[in-house]
Amino acid sequence: MILGNRLYVRKDPDRDASLCIIYCEGNKREPQYFKYFDKISSRIILEVVKADPEGNNSPMGLYEQACIDIKDKSTELKAKYDVGATDQVWFVIDTDEWNQQIQELKQNCLNEENWRVAQSNPCFEVWLYYHITGEDAGAVVLPNCAAWKNHVNEMIPGGFDCRKHPVFIRDAIEHAKANFRTVDGQIGYGSTEMFKLAEILYPLVASDIKKALKVIKHEAEKTTSNSNN
Length: 229
Prior knowledge:
Elements: E1 18-24, H1 29-35, E2 44-49, H2 59-71, E3 88-94, H3 99-109, E4 115-121, H4 125-132, H5 145-154, H6 169-178, E5 182-183, E6 186-187, E7 191-192, H7 194-228
Parallel strand pairs: 1-2, 1-3, 3-4
Antiparallel strand pairs: 4-7, 5-6
Helix pairs in contact: 4-5, 4-6, 6-7
């Protein structure tokens, strides 16, 4: 299957575009993934805050950073983002060893308007996995997050490419929802809440994603036809 790096034209946001700020625990794979959707639609302004290698990137560390960026209205430090009532703030978090902090983060977000958490167990690669297959990730028993990264990359020729494969976000939503489970109130192994964030994002980019998928289908059909001739 042929996937171009960019199958749409970047667009400047409308004056009434929604703002979505995403705080990432990681500083590489997650920001690279969300970059695919940067300016894909004029209906959304996507601000992706990647982890600072020298900062506190724990769940509560990210929350504290968001409070500084959004809520600090002091004259000494003006808030970085002007967040309206319909705008979204998300925290993309891996389970790792953060269980107690994640619960604290989720509790604090309940006190804020449209602040939410997308937790993946054990890591963000579970979300990427569901772009490729609908098989239950809970059945994939791996020792750590590094093994998950390797597993996802081995599932597709050349590895998961954040410049191309996020186009299958609709499939990922369906697969992640179908296999989502909780155990004693906690996110189950092989489950991810990323579909909740994607369900907010997808309607704003759906028309452009569908156009991109048509190009992919056309290229695949052309490749198949050429190989048969």
